[in-house]
């Protein structure tokens, strides 16, 4: 080789040694020196595809970086005051085990179900909704893979590009890019103690709708009054304004039920009502539902079919058994009581440690306390300090720019004793920040 390529023998030897040390070639005694197999595949491959053009395309814009950070860190051992889920210690093991046993005992196949969902589940939900005075037939219900998918189906199945979606300013929707696939505009409306200022929605020929979380709103925990609900419905009927009512936390009241859902007062078929099993039972089931006029359910079922052929059969069978179980109402009462206790303990911790630094409102249901930090405290800095101490909370800015002094704390996930300890740590971090 040295002669053929007219190079010095020692140069060739050191080159061979280097290639060998990098694993590009391999030598066996008596077998000579060979190019390693993975080197061949590397040599034969074309230049790597530049995926960037693809990862920066598509219908979805990325989640906000802060949300991405929180999502990543939620898989670690961090203390999660950010998490909108029930604590694992509240999981109804017995109820779920019984439901799963019943399901597997009766299971004969796991084929596709109709895209609108398991009929028995829709019957069970129609029955369940009666307690909220929502009187519907199973045909008015579509089962979705979580209520997040319901929002997705609505946006790709019902909206035109550029539709305007009015929300409470601040809202869960601002933390999601869910309506981005139709390039819609989110417009936040102010709200007071009674609820959203719907009358500020301008008259328009363009497509527009209102998304609202009337009971135990995410992130504020606020409840829309009965009067505001009635007035909103009158306005919506007059304006032909569709309303998406997100009832995710509705069942989780502490002392008394919230006012009746918009859907139960909806005489003009203006409301698309969204429910979910995620907050009162188990988000891992990935089950939600849309209640609406049959034409809407048919259209969205067709879109659902094209999206994923329907929600998981196993999950639907399981939820049906849970809803049919005589132990279910007791479980729900118990969860309400547990959340109420957790909330009380969380408020005591805040009172003890954060009184001079923040203000907050006492929630009457749901998972969250919406806290306003004093102006001299940087929420952004506190968020990063907290991450340094392995603590997660949701800074208000993810729900909208006007909420930069706010933070959302969930008392549903973290055990009360840890919650208290963590609030004490946050107090230390605030003190540190104010001293420097
Ligand atoms: N709506 C609200 C108000 C929520 O807080 C959440 C979950 N954080 C959802 C919808 C979506 O829940 P899921 O898709 O699990 O039903």
List its traits.
binds 4'-deoxy-4'-aminopyridoxal-5'-phosphate; four-stranded antiparallel β-sheet; 39% helix; 436 residues; alpha/beta; 13 helices; seven-stranded mixed β-sheet; single chain
Short note summarizing the structure:
39% of the residues lie in helices and 15% in strands.
What does this structure look like?
This protein is of the alpha/beta class. It contains 13 helices and 17 strands. The strands form five sheets. It has a seven-stranded mixed sheet, with helices on both faces. It has a four-stranded antiparallel sheet with strand order 13-14-17-16. Strand 9, helix 8 and strand 10 form a beta-alpha-beta unit. The longest helix is centred in the last third of the chain and has 27 residues. The mean pLDDT is 93. It binds 4'-deoxy-4'-aminopyridoxal-5'-phosphate (PMP). The site of 4'-deoxy-4'-aminopyridoxal-5'-phosphate (PMP) has 13 residues, from helix 7. 4'-deoxy-4'-aminopyridoxal-5'-phosphate binds next to helix 7.
Give the helix/strand layout.
Blueprint: H1 9-21, E1 25-28, E2 32-35, H2 37-44, H3 52-55, H4 65-73, E3 79-80, H5 93-106, H6 119-129, E4 141-144, H7 147-158, E5 164-168, E6 185-189, E7 191-192, E8 195-196, E9 208-212, H8 226-239, E10 243-246, E11 271-276, E12 288-291, H9 294-308, H10 313-324, H11 328-354, E13 358-360, E14 368-373, H12 379-388, E15 391-392, E16 394-395, E17 406-410, H13 416-435
Parallel strand pairs: 3-15, 5-6, 5-9, 9-10, 10-11
Antiparallel strand pairs: 1-2, 4-12, 7-8, 11-12, 13-14, 14-17, 16-17
Helix pairs in contact: 5-10, 6-10, 7-9, 11-13, 12-13
4'-deoxy-4'-aminopyridoxal-5'-phosphate (PMP) binds near residues 147, 172 and 278.
Family: In the C-terminal section; belongs to the class-I pyridoxal-phosphate-dependent aminotransferase family.
GO molecular function: DNA binding; DNA-binding transcription factor activity; pyridoxal phosphate binding; transaminase activity
Pfam families: Aminotran_1_2, GntR
